[in-house]
Write a structure and sequence with these properties.
2 domains, single chain, 313 residues, 8 strands, 8-stranded antiparallel beta barrel
Length: 313
């Protein structure tokens, strides 16, 4: 992959082809630059989310920092090839045929039909249509504008631009630092708060809890400390009734008490029953208005998360 321009200063400024070197580099660099900023913004917005024992947003950010330098150039080139440059090609064609309005404005407008093609693909795969179209189109705005800027600057200088990737990288780092700094300041001042699980008493926890996705999973916590388990999952052992997912389903009675989660400093419900593997900790999550109980089972690196929510009956 060539990050600079081949041929030195002998190359003509302001190339005409849609897939010319400067257009490809400008689109790829802008997309690669905006991805870390979008990731940092997404990270700050998930600080008040419940990670349910999955490592939290900080874990995802650490993985992105390790893999980002290798993946960003590839993702930038891919984005340019499948979205930005097709829209630029349509925009150039529309500007040439209609002879009114700047080419970059037509390219921005043509992001929508190109994004609609990908939206149809997402819809076929089971996703919604409108949201992917809007997100795809929005992701192409900055690359299209960067193409227009780089072409204008290259024409003014009369020589090919050589630092498109470097300048885009520096701009991305600066914006990421600014967003993180603002997030830290917002956290310190209390504007942005990290997630805290609800604090419920034993009386508030007593009741019927059913599976968020499967209501046949039931955990009844009696006020007198008794627990009724009906289809709740647990780590299977030899001879247990296996449900096909790597877990067993418990149908038994036992006792419950309030305690602490095994791997996090947060409240949990400790359920004990001799019939289903002994002690199991259901960690308290969700919010005060919609509390949850969840347990992570299976592979710690990719656990099966079972979530229970309050139900009547």
């Amino acid at each position: 992959m060539k990050w600079g321009n081949a041929g030195g200063g002998a190359k003509k400024a302001g190339p005409d082809g849609t897939w010319s070197d400067i257009r490809l580099r400008a689109a790829s660099a802008a997309c690669a630059a905006q991805l870390p900023v979008a990731g940092v913004v997404a990270f700050t917005l998930t600080l008040d989310d419940d990670a349910r024992g999955a490592g939290g947003p900080a874990f995802g950010l650490a993985c992105a920092l390790l893999l980002g330098p290798f993946m960003l150039p590839v993702l930038g080139l891919l984005h340019a090839a499948v979205l930005t440059l097709p829209a630029v090609g349509l925009g150039r064609l529309a500007a040439a045929r209609l002879r009114r309005g700047p080419e970059w404005a037509w390219s921005l407008l043509c992001l929508l039909p190109v994004a609609a093609v990908w939206g149809l693909l997402f819809a076929v795969l089971g996703a919604t249509f409108v949201a992917p179209v809007l997100w795809c189109a929005a992701s192409g705005v900055l690359p299209v504008l960067n193409i227009a800027y780089c072409l204008r600057r290259e024409k003014r200088l009369g020589r090919p631009l050589r630092k498109v990737w470097i300048l885009s990288g520096l701009a991305s780092l600066g914006l990421c630092a600014a967003v993180l700094g603002a997030a830290v300041l917002a956290t310190l001042t209390g504007v942005l708060k990290e997630y805290e699980p609800p604090r419920l008493s034993a009386a508030q926890l007593a009741g019927t809890w059913r599976g968020e996705d499967d209501e046949s999973v039931v955990l009844r916590l009696r006020g007198d400390g008794r627990a009724v388990l009906d289809g709740t999952p647990f780590e299977r052992e030899l001879g247990d009734a296996y449900d096909g997912s790597g877990l067993s389903r418990c149908h038994a009675t036992g006792t419950w008490t309030m305690g602490d989660a095994l791997y996090e400093r947060r409240p949990a419900v400790a359920v004990e029953t001799d019939a289903c593997g002994g002690d199991q900790r259901w960690t308290l999550g969700g919010t005060e208005e919609r509390p949850e109980l969840f347990v992570a089972l299976g592979d710690p690196d990719s656990p099966d998360i079972e979530v229970l929510v309050r139900r009547r009956g």
